[in-house]
Amino acid sequence: SASWVPGKFGNALFFNGNNDYGRTFGYKGVTGSAARTVSLWFKTEAAGKPILSYGAEGQGTLFALSLDETGAAVADFGEGFARGGETLADGAWHHLAVSLPAGGSGSDAKLYLDGSMTGESNGSTTIATSSANDLLLGSDGTSFFAGLLEDVRIYSAELSGLEIAKVHSSGMGDFNRLLVKAEGTIQITASQPGNPEWGGIHYPASDANL
């Protein structure tokens, strides 16, 4: 029953903190030991609330993002965690991203707040996130987020700090990423007037044909 309201870039989902949540029916998130990055914007005045969750309780089988009672951002993996920031339940927009390498443990996780890596991480168990449950926004199944969520992104890749900083700075920083899924031929035309550099590759300032 979450509702759409004006947000940071466009529309955001508003959660009332009582019973609102979002569920992605049939989608389990990036599971197993695969590399991943979860990125989102949040705005809240309520600490101690879940933001996003999937997987299941167990040693390395959970992936859950929340704010703890101090307002710090926490990524909980069931065994191992990443934590950073304080007093983030301040009614302002904040960008949160958590990345994991393939086959990594909690100590390999990186947590980014407002475009910069911060905090600490811990855990020695290889993360193998369960695929038992659908991904939830604004809930962990028992508690509920109170505030706004926007621009939630889940990548099957460990984004670099530079890539996360680009997503944070514009809300569109990853749109130069391409995934080739099968053999074949494709032509891509890109245009970025006034800037000879596009996606880290140098082209003439005019349109570039790849």
Instruction: Give the fraction of residues assigned to helices.
Output: under 10%
Order of strands, main sheet, comes to 1-2-14-4-9-10-11
Task: Enumerate the spans where pLDDT stays under 50 for 5 or more consecutive residues.
Answer: 202-210
Number of strands: 18
Percent of residues in beta strands: 35-45%
Order of helices and strands: EEEEEEEEEEEEEEHEEEE
Mean pLDDT over all positions: 89
Structural class designation = mainly beta
Number of DSSP helices?
A: 1
What's the gyration radius in Å?
18 Å
End-to-end Cα distance, whole Å, is 45 Å
* Major sheet size, sense and barrel closure: 7 strands, antiparallel
Globally, the shape reads: globular
Protein architecture, described:
The structure is a single chain. The chain is mainly beta and 210 residues long. Helices cover 5% and strands 39% of the residues. The protein is built from one helix and 18 strands. The chain has one helix at 161-170, and strands spanning 3-6, 11-16, 22-24, 36-44, 50-55, 62-67, 73-76, 81-84, 93-100, 110-113, 116-118, 120-122, 135-137, 146-155, 189-190, 197-198, 201-202, 208-209. The strands form four sheets. Strands 1-2-14-4-9-10-11 form a seven-stranded antiparallel sheet. A hairpin with a 2-residue loop joins strand 10 (110-113) and strand 11 (116-118). The longest helix is centred in the C-terminal third of the chain and has 10 residues, at 161-170. The protein is globular. The model is unreliable at 202-210 (pLDDT under 50).
